[in-house]
Write a structure and sequence with these properties.
cytoplasm; nucleotide-binding; Rossmann fold; magnesium; T6A_TsaE; alpha/beta; 7-stranded mixed beta sheet; 155 residues
Length: 155
């Protein structure tokens, strides 16, 4: 059964705080699928989550051109992937994402590029810009019961 939750985030700070709360609950094997139009806040959300897991927060560049950035955190290895420039799911396999889904925390921007490789147990987060200001609509969607209590703890 698919479940979902809609949240309105009224500022970048509120988005960062939610990302940090979610980050504190993640462990190896958790996959977050970040979707939304360009400028919707996917990278901002990912950056805030990654920095919240670092002992000493460091610069977190967008992986748009490198495709994947890997971080060592106290919670385990974390992969931040931006699949925007990929043309086939085979390229995701070449990057090692299929293995990372089992062994690391993974944040994937533009997850539609995964096609059949999309992990069934992933948590999907769709960000939408509202009215051109700093307000974002966040829709979380999941089927795996593992996310029930985690999502409940976010609100």
């Amino acid at each position: 059964m698919t479940r979902h939750l809609d949240l309105t985030l009224t500022s970048p700070e509120q988005t960062s705080a939610l990302a940090a709360r979610l980050g504190a609950m993640l462990h190896a094997g958790d996959v977050l699928l970040l979707s939304g139009e360009i400028g919707a806040g996917k990278t901002h959300f990912a950056r805030a989550l990654i920095q919240s897991l670092q002992d000493t927060p460091e610069d977190v560049p967008s992986p748009t051109f490198t495709l994947v950035q890997v971080y060592d955190t106290p919670a385990g290895e974390l992969w931040h992937a931006d699949l925007y420039r990929l043309s086939s799911p085979d390229e995701c396999v070449e990057l090692g994402l299929a293995d990372a889904f089992d062994e690391a925390i993974c944040l994937v921007e533009w997850p539609d590029k995964l096609e059949d490789l999309t992990p069934a147990a992933a948590l999907s987060l769709r960000l939408a810009d509202r009215a051109g200001d700093d307000t974002r609509q966040l829709t979380l969607t999941w089927t795996d019961p593992r996310w029930d209590s985690l999502v409940a703890a976010l609100v």
